[in-house]
Structures are given as C-alpha cells and as structure tokens.
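Researcher: Please translate sequence to structure tokens.
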Amino acid sequence: MGGPQGILFDLGGTLLGEFKFDRAAGRAHLLEIAHNPKGVTLGDYAVFAKEFHETVWAGRDESLVEFPVAKFWKLADEQLGISFDLPENEVELEFWRTAVTMKPEPGVVETLDALREAGLPMGVVSNSAFCGYVLSRELEQHGLRDYFAFVMSSADYGIRKPHHMIFDTAAGKLGLRPADVWFAGDRLDQDVAGAKGAGMYAVWYNPSGAPCDGAVPDAEVGHWGELLPLMGV
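Model: Translation complete:
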C-alpha cells in the first residue's frame, strides 16, 4: 500500500472535539442583537423551530440534502419580524461563538505539522448546517486553519456525506483523483462509508475504542500519532 498524495479530514469529532452546544444560549444572543419590534421571545421561536425540526431537518441524513441553518433562520425571522444589520455569515458566527465550544483533539497539531512538512495537501469536509466561513473561523481560533487548502461545509454545497459527490468535489479541489486521497473521520456511516464509496482510502478515527458496527474502514487509529506511520511520514 502506497501513501496518499493528499488527505481530507472531517471536522467535528475528528480535528476538533465538541464540548458544548447550547442552542438556547445562541438564539438568546441573536435576539439581543436583532431588531425585534414585536418582542419575539425564545418561546415564540421554539414553536417555529419544533415544527421545522420535525418536518424538515429530521430528514437530512436520509435524503443527504443539507438545509443551511441560515435559510432556516431566514424562514423564521421574516415570519416573526426579526432582522439584523449584519451579513448572514456574521449572524451565523455570532450564534456559533455563543453556543459552541470546541478544542483540538489530542495530537492533532503535531500530526498536521508533520503532514504539512511532508508536503501533503490537506482539506476539510464537514457535515454541518453552518457555513464554511464559520467553520474556518473556528479552526482559526485554534491555530489550525492555515494547514488546509480549503474548508468545505455541506451547508455551502447542499449535499451531505456520505454522498460520493461531496468527496469527489473535495478530491477535485486538491487536484487529485479520489483513489489518491485518504479521508480521516470519526463517523463510520458518514466518513468511512462515504470515502470508500468515492474510492478513497478510509481512516476511522476512533479514540474511544468503539466496536466497528458499520462500514469497515481501511485503517483505524485511536490517536492522531498513529496516523503518521500508516502514511509513511
């Protein structure tokens, strides 16, 4: 087995671990900075959100069609009479900064340093309702953004992993064939299944040592330091 000519990573649970997602805090912050002439409350917003989640959002994994959070907010905010002075991506970022806390997975910085020194092009492909701008800013906060040629979010492409098209597009952005690319992620159903379906070499990041109960990866690592010997770096 030869090493890859490029490598792609998932983001949440792979490069960064998520330690908090407080949706109510994020939305409360947006209401604080919004023009809200009708005095809409979190309770009012929750009524709209409940129906949307039950009828639209719940089908994302089955349909593999992404519904960006900004479009959901547009539906709700225009119905409820809420508006912002900020651009759409900055509204997303305001929510994210209040609601989400993440930190790099152990060993990821040292691994990315070694891969960059070896000259391997790298990118990020994430299933997220938040746009790539927001994900890039999160990576910047941890000093990780400059390792990657690009950050792809399903919110910007309208399609979710494991659909092969998002993997094919990422390989094209690296200027490589899928067969020459490795993909590393923590989800068997999205990352491993999708990468293998696209003809990539799939590495399962499994720090908890969970049993393999889905798509079978080509390789498995429990710590990022284990990836480099596999790649011959």
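Researcher: Any highlights?
Model: The chain has two domains: 6-19+101-231, 20-100.
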